[in-house]
Fold this protein.
Amino acid sequence: MKQPLHRRQPTPGNPRVQRTRNRVLAVARELLPQVGPSGLTYALLAERADVTRQTLYRHWPTRAALLFDLVLEGPDLGTYPQPGNDVRDVATAWLKSLRAGVSVPAVRTAALAVTAQADHDPDSARALVRISEDRYTGFNQLLEPSGIQISEDEFTLLYGPVLARLFLDRGQVTDAFIDAVVTQWLTTLQHADTPRDFQ
Amino acid sequence: MKQPLHRRQPTPGNPRVQRTRNRVLAVARELLPQVGPSGLTYALLAERADVTRQTLYRHWPTRAALLFDLVLEGPDLGTYPQPGNDVRDVATAWLKSLRAGVSVPAVRTAALAVTAQADHDPDSARALVRISEDRYTGFNQLLEPSGIQISEDEFTLLYGPVLARLFLDRGQVTDAFIDAVVTQWLTTLQHADTPRDFQ
Amino acid sequence: MKQPLHRRQPTPGNPRVQRTRNRVLAVARELLPQVGPSGLTYALLAERADVTRQTLYRHWPTRAALLFDLVLEGPDLGTYPQPGNDVRDVATAWLKSLRAGVSVPAVRTAALAVTAQADHDPDSARALVRISEDRYTGFNQLLEPSGIQISEDEFTLLYGPVLARLFLDRGQVTDAFIDAVVTQWLTTLQHADTPRDFQ
Amino acid sequence: MKQPLHRRQPTPGNPRVQRTRNRVLAVARELLPQVGPSGLTYALLAERADVTRQTLYRHWPTRAALLFDLVLEGPDLGTYPQPGNDVRDVATAWLKSLRAGVSVPAVRTAALAVTAQADHDPDSARALVRISEDRYTGFNQLLEPSGIQISEDEFTLLYGPVLARLFLDRGQVTDAFIDAVVTQWLTTLQHADTPRDFQ
DNA sequence: TTATAAACGAGACGGTACGTCTTGTCTTATG
DNA sequence: CATAAGACAAGACGTACCGTCTCGTTTATAA
């Protein structure tokens, strides 16, 4: 739990630095689902990535920093949802994209690890909040063509059931389930007066 | 990650054993929120509980086993929801009880830790599923006077937003938010035909 | 190294006590050469001899005590040397008997273990001296028919090379080597005046 | 008894390594006679030498390895015997040097410990044999000016009584005793034909 | 093209925790 | 009521990982 000394991190511009960084992250992504969050030690990662432990510390002074990068720089999923004016279509596409993202093992494991330690690690907590907000903002951007913007509470009503099913129930998220979520969620939007914040 | 040898655990009947067990769990509950899941080492716990590490291993051969006990034998919350025939009242009371339970720091931390390692530890995964099912069954029992029974999908629609708000958004769950969740959820129930499973 | 509490030892007369004692010693004799002196733990011995560790502690409060018994109550070798008036014959027979005794693995191992800790364990030192004196006295008794009695120094000159060869060189003690030792030793006796002590 | 993994040992050239190594050996030499062979735990040694246990394991993966170093790198005794052409003088001087060497408590204790476990530890056995052979070779080198070379059996006849007296009888080795040993030993040499091997 | 700064490899080290083992004592239940 | 079964404290074992600190060597950028 001791905070490591904050040394100067490698300059991101340097091509050698990028090479090292990308190689390590790739290996980490491959390794994480195999060995689990607690098994992804710097010792193992250094050995597999053909790098010195020292190099890892230079790039990611904290294990949390490494996990952030794994979550944030998840592999491109290609099917990023497009903006649209049909709210149902946008919400459905977005939930499916969320489902896809969380299904990538490395991202999934890293995200859960960050969440678990967020209560006792301010950095992790900050990262988590930032990710949440990014998601929220991004979704509202997708909704712009429809002229509708939703509140944070409504946003939670949308994605909450999906993530709960995946992480907590450890069950499948079928297309039917997504449909049900969206259907229910739309009724709420229709019933709501403006402003629709539940304070 | 190596699975420790499964030695014979202390006989639960023995009063000496119970004394030790309770004392350790109490100390663990106190310690966990302070030091975080990774900080709750057997070394520290042994020292604080005035017990040998060996004794800890006898009682909980795996760290996961200890975490289970922390989650399952959470402190009594007193306000356990009562069965009733008003679905809205039952659901609201149940969500508030869930909120209360997850607000106990030790339970909260332990639950998150178990969740995080469930992907790579079958024991944790099993425990998680069992907890989920217990919650589901318990809720339906509360609903019995109303003559209504809900599906697992509907159950997820109910509690998903609340836990997502707590764990992922790391935001507050206000009474108003709970009301909104329940209200939306009730519309789904009313719209649904029988059977209401979303397959 | 802590000196164990000295509890009351079992009464040697009790047949049950003897049964236990003999069984344990037999198992220990079998075990010792297999696992080595440091591997002969009370835990292992108790398990193999179907006895509680407590019982072992009652019989031999100290590990050294157990080793003594193993050395002193070595198995009967049958060919114990007979007294005689031919000094060469007696000495040769005695050396061969010594060689035989030390070749019993359990005795050999136990004796070496006792020797090694004699410097730091007064009990072991005392036991060692006693064994030495017994051997010395016994040998002189064998010599009585010949009318010759030897000094301790002369005794050491006789058996010293044999034990050195066995324990330190870790080489074979052939009959020819024993003959050479005895021959050389006899010249010393003949040259010596009376008293033949080298002070 | 399980053979510890043989990891790479520190590079002997490194001055930092030598510093550590020498400091530890010095402390061990001081400690060994005080606490005995079984009391010289890595835990104690690490504490006293202001070194981590891990460092000890890096340098001496086996306790036996440490003991070897203690025996082999015994402190210089200064009075190492000189070659000569008077066999009696050389033998006497060599025995006195042997007596001196074995009187150094640390060497004495370490040597006995190695001997005791030689039966069950091949490494110790090998080390013991090597030490024996070194002594034998060294003695014959001292004898070179005299034109005489002795067999291993004759060598054992020389040093056997001295070490037996010291280790087994636990008695004093006086100058007179050494004289007696040498005198007897010389008669054997004179009587012997060439070659003087007792096969 | 060469200096000069950085990133990196190699590896020793102090710490801390792990999971296991043995020891000697003490407690509990049982026959 | 004595004894086995076994829980416990104490502490060593051998291992693993962490975070730091040299000290050389390689690589990239700037002079």
Observations:
- Residues 1-6, 194-199 of chain B have pLDDT under 50 and may be disordered.
- Residues 122-143 of chain B form the longest helix (22 residues).
- Chain B has two domains: 15-72, 87-190.
- The two ends of chain B are 38 Å apart (CA to CA).
